[in-house]
Amino acid sequence: MRARFIIHVWTLALTAAAGAAAQSAVPPVAPLHPFSGISSITTLDNHGAVSSTTCCGLMQVDADGRRLTAHIDSASFDAPVRRASITDPIALKMMTIDYGSHTANVTLLRLTAVGRIMPSDKPFTYEDNSRGDVGEKIMDGVRVHGYVWVTKAPDGAAPATVDVTTRFNPAAYPITNEWWWSPELHVFPLITQVDANGNKWIQKYEKFDLHAPAPGTFAIPQGFHVTTVEAPPDTH
To answer: What is the pLDDT of residues 137-160, one digit of tens each?
Structure first.
């Protein structure tokens, strides 16, 4: 799934704990609003006809910032999850769980990774004066704030080829972007991009459940074979 979750630099007073406690648990600054959401990606041609649909992406987040992402076969919270990726900023772990083969891979993260895996509380990492503000609305029971801007061709970029004029082409500049951000859930429930030929790429959360995920969602089931490695030291 082409999904965009923006990196936020999360600063804490951790210098004193950098020694023996370097791998200790780290609480988030403030509790997040837990949720589960199901998203899909649809592309439309310049006549509005559906070119393709990709279903579905599942995301689940708890109040401490633990996050599960997975592909599911239908837009239902009851759809089976066969394989999932989980980030845990409290235990400082990244996990990949294969529920079919009963295996899991765990990467033990360093303290400096917390800011990279916590959900961002801002829609963008930098200010852009060309980014327009289109206000707020309620989308599927979630308050969202909209932004629009145009992406122009990079200097020296080759023109888009003619054979992709009837389907969305991210290289057919200019690209018109419309992104709707949820300040409460820290995600973009709706992203729309329109290329120069009028073709659209749409990523949308089809449904939300604004309750905490079930207990055990972010844990490796008992009896699974677990392979654990440590993340390499930061080089920057």
So the answer is: 999 899 999 999 999 998 877 666
